[in-house]
Design goal:
14 helices; 298 residues; two-stranded antiparallel ribbon
């Protein structure tokens, strides 16, 4: 048959997009009789789903009905499912980030930095600048996802649920859709939260690298961060970031000086999108499905 239906994702699935093991991991069934199906490939050219049961009548009847599902119906279900999942992730976004990114060892200090950022007037300006940059770069989806292939693979490949190209592509799609939603201005609280955590993670990484040796641009950012976090005086924080708006004499690929503030924004964006890419979307959906099945058994 041309399509299957994933109980896990609540979407219609094309056989060409998945691997054999994905039918089990994503609980792909026949949309008509609800029986499990598996993927069949013929010389890597013809792909289709088939029932496990050797009942030719069942296979034939289901195939006729499933193949009559219109593309508009498939798209309608996909949109509904995407919105439902996005709403689920938005509700638990902050908890997902705290649990997945921070860890218990650093949480007290990071929360202290987080609240420090929220009280700073200069950070309000940074949010505006960052949002404009993010809205521009998110327009080129293909380039954006290619930039982060290594990030996502290194983080998730060790978990069974991510051991296929199909799973990885879903993970990237969710991260991109999440980012798109945030930069569209629909959820300012979550956008500001993401930016704050990215800001702090960059500071922590620079602090760790500073024990060895920082590159020139890293030294500039690290100096700025230190001035920011080591003072309670907002005027001094403003001054620290004003320094980033000037030219530091660092040469780019064209030989022109690099704007320090732009360099800072690019780094923050990379950290922010990496956070979204690392969030355990599929594990959250898996847990939700397990809970639903448990309720049905009662």
């Amino acid at each position: 048959m041309k399509y299957g239906y994933s109980l896990f994702l609540q979407e219609y699935i094309y056989p060409k997009d998945v691997e054999y093991e994905d039918t089990r991991l994503f609980q792909i069934i026949c949309p008509e009789c609800k029986e499990p199906v598996f993927k069949v490939s013929r010389e890597n050219v013809v792909n289709y789903f088939s029932h496990y049961k050797k009942d030719e009548t069942l296979n034939h009847e289901c195939e006729l009905r499933v193949n009559s599902i219109s593309s508009s119906k498939i798209n309608e279900v996909a949109v509904q499912s995407k919105n439902q999942k996005l709403n689920l992730f938005l509700k638990i976004f902050e908890d997902m980030v705290w649990d997945n990114e921070v860890g218990q060892d650093n949480i007290k200090k990071i929360k202290q930095y987080y609240y420090q950022l929220q009280r700073s007037s200069i950070f309000s300006d940074i949010k505006i600048y960052f949002l404009k940059y993010a809205r521009d770069i998110v327009l080129d989806k293909k380039r954006l996802l290619e930039m982060f292939n290594e990030t996502i693979q290194n983080k998730l490949k060790e978990k069974e649920i991510y051991n296929s190209d199909f799973a990885m592509n879903i993970q990237k799609e969710y991260a991109y859709e999440f980012l798109n939603h945030l930069v569209a201005g629909h959820s300012k609280r979550n956008f500001h939260f993401l930016l704050s955590i990215a800001f702090i993670e960059l500071y922590y990484d620079l602090k760790r690298k500073s024990r060895k040796r920082l590159q020139d641009w890293e030294e500039i950012l690290f100096t700025c961060f230190n001035k920011f976090f080591r003072t309670q005086n907002d005027n001094k924080r403003v001054k620290a970031f004003q320094e980033l708006t000037s030219q530091f004499g660092l040469s780019g690929s064209t030989g022109e000086p690099i704007d320090g503030y732009l360099l800072f924004t690019i780094q923050i964006f990379q950290y922010a999108f990496s956070i979204l890419l690392r969030l355990p979307y599929l594990e959250i959906l898996q847990k939700k499905l397990t809970e639903k099945e448990g309720q049905n058994d009662l």
